[in-house]
Amino acid sequence: MKDMLSLSAHLPEVTFAPGDTVIEEGGQAGAMWILVSGAMHVYKGEVVVNIIAEPGAVIGEISLLLNANYGATVRAAEPTVLRFAEDGMALLQSDPAITTFIATGLAQRLNLVTTYLVDLQHQYGDAPGLSIIPEVLRRLTSRQRPAARTGSVRDPNPDY
């Protein structure tokens, strides 16, 4: 399978200085970015939740696919070059290899999260506050509703 850098070679490149915002949490989605060089910090609120430094990494695909606003802020952590697809959906539809690459990446991330949650349950399943893990796993592995929601708004009357 081709890598995302070769699949996105036709896209324009944009350079960001350290501290520049690429994506603002809550902003309208639609575009996708591909990291060429540099590094970015991903923030939920003011907390860094991820560092993206792997060339070919894709940014904005989750919000694009869910047709939801961006769920995090992404800022350049150092001089960074990104490829820019203003119409991310058109990019996805332009080449099955791109769609497969994105789907594979999302499947890998889901697998990582579910494996981590299972490990937590095995190690600390009886700890207060972690009794929710089986329900989270059930929801992650069950069939999704047609319209998925992003964010962490808690249900005031959950089923568990």
Topology:
Elements: H1 4-7, E1 13-16, E2 21-23, E3 32-37, E4 40-44, E5 47-52, E6 58-59, H2 61-66, E7 73-76, E8 80-85, H3 88-94, H4 96-124, H5 133-141
Antiparallel strand pairs: 1-8, 2-7, 3-6, 3-8, 4-5, 4-7
Helix pairs in contact: 3-4, 4-5
Task: Provide a descriptive summary of the structure in words.
The protein is α+β, with helices and mostly antiparallel strands. The radius of gyration is 17 Å and the shape is globular. Helix content is 34%, strand content 22%. It has 2 domains: 4-94, Jelly Rolls; 96-141. Helix 3 crosses helix 4 and helix 4 (96-124) packs antiparallel against helix 5. The longest helix has 29 residues, at 96-124. Strands 1-8-3-6 form a 4-stranded antiparallel beta sheet. Strands 2-7-4-5 form a 4-stranded antiparallel beta sheet, with no helix packed on it. The model has no long low-confidence stretch (mean pLDDT 85). The chain contains 5 helices and 8 strands; from the N terminus they run H-E-E-E-E-E-E-H-E-E-H-H-H.
How would you sum up this structure in a few lines?
Helices cover 34% and strands 22% of the residues.
From the structure above, extract its key features.
four-stranded antiparallel β-sheet, alpha+beta, globular, single chain, 2 domains, 160 residues, Jelly Rolls
**Portion in strands:** 15-25%
Order of helices and strands: HEEEEEEHEEHHH
SS summary, helix count:
5
Shape descriptor: globular
N-to-C CA distance: 42 Å
- Looking at the structure, the CATH topology of the largest domain is Jelly Rolls
User: Would you identify the CATH H-level superfamily of the largest domain?
Assistant: Jelly Rolls
CATH class of the largest domain: Mainly Beta
Average pLDDT number: 85
Tell me the major beta sheet.
4 strands, antiparallel
Helix content: 25-40%
Structural class: alpha+beta
CATH 2nd-level architecture of the largest domain = Sandwich
Give the oligomeric state of the chains in this entry, treating copies of one chain as homo and distinct chains as hetero.
Answer: single chain
> Number of folding domains?
2
Number of strands: 8
Radius of gyration: 17 Å
Note poorly predicted spans: none
Strand order within the widest beta sheet: 1-8-3-6
